[in-house]
């Protein structure tokens, strides 16, 4: 099946972001994409100072638009971090997924909050405004089961391992790495998660905006279970496409059968929630 990643240029105007995102979703569908993914924080600028201002409940304006366009195009739509979600007085970094009938299939709240301090380069603390999610998020398609993470979640190998154990063959990470961590780790982490678990990994970023307070790395990427980069964007707004070949995935798992060779008598991973 064909996967499309929309590397969207995000402005400060929510309505413009939603309109352009939906237009690119329609374009991707017209080119044969069956699963389409939007980047982290696609309806608002990325930054702790923006989260409260742009927050919505779910369902809300942004998720309603996603539901409508998914149904119109009859696709599976991964809504990036469509919104900072407000629920019970707390804010979450949330990704919603909608099916071809417009129904919401999954809602992933970012589990690992992005709190880092690299002296002289970048300091960021999501926990100043956001609360963490506490669950794994998977959804089924006629093609394969898909596991979800958001940005910083990709650094935690245990999460991807559990998705693999639960039968996921594609992991999608909407993310917004920056100009420090992007060139160092963006592709490396995707290739690591793909090879470790013999799955396809797709990471979809906003386009780079040099004038933004937080500058995203861009370079949305798809990696196959052999660890090869099979599609990659530059820094500008674009849509990239790739065909997910589950036969190739099965062949790789047969050739190097690590999933059946794990020493579960010595170690293991457990999903607690």
Automatic annotation (TrEMBL):
Keyword Cytoplasm applies: no
Q: Which domain of life is it from?
A: Eukaryota
- Keyword line: Hydrolase
* Matching CDD domains: nit (cd07572)
A Gene Ontology biological process term: asparagine metabolic process
As its record notes, the protein acts as a catalyst of: 2-oxoglutaramate + H2O = 2-oxoglutarate + NH4(+); 2-oxosuccinamate + H2O = oxaloacetate + NH4(+)
Q: Which residues form the CN hydrolase domain?
A: 1-246
Q: Which Pfam families match?
A: CN_hydrolase
- Return the EC number: 3.5.1.3
Return the InterPro entries for the record: C-N_Hydrolase, C-N_Hydrolase_sf, Nit1/2_C-N_Hydrolase
Where is it found, in Gene Ontology cellular component terms? mitochondrion
Q: Name one GO molecular function term.
A: omega-amidase activity
Enzyme class label: hydrolase
Q: Which family does it belong to?
A: Belongs to the carbon-nitrogen hydrolase superfamily. NIT1/NIT2 family.
Q: What is the protein name given in its UniProt record?
A: omega-amidase
